[in-house]
Structures are given as structure tokens and as C-alpha cells.
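Sanity check

After download, print the first record. It should look like this:
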Amino acid sequence: GYLKASGADSEISEEITQGVLSTVWQKAYQFNQNIANVSTVPGSSP
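Expected C-alpha cells:
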């Protein structure tokens, strides 16, 4: 992914990815489709 392409060590990029996915999973209950939009997604453009 992005981290490997930017030169990050494979092990470090795996740890970061797992940490991010774990946080997203743990906070999934906070998702509100009534207020979510494309501009809230990092790297997206309207």
C-alpha cells in the first residue's frame, strides 16, 4: 500500500495498518450515514 510505496519498512507498515484497522473497527458504532460525506474521507476529492 501507500506506506510500502513511500519506502516504509514492511513490518512497520503492517503494524500501522493493523493499528488503523483495529481503531476503525472499534469505532464503527460511531458511524452516522446521515452526516458522512465524501469530504470526510482522507484522500478523496468532492
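If your output differs, re-run the checksum step. Summary of this record's structure: Residues 10-26 form the longest helix (17 residues).
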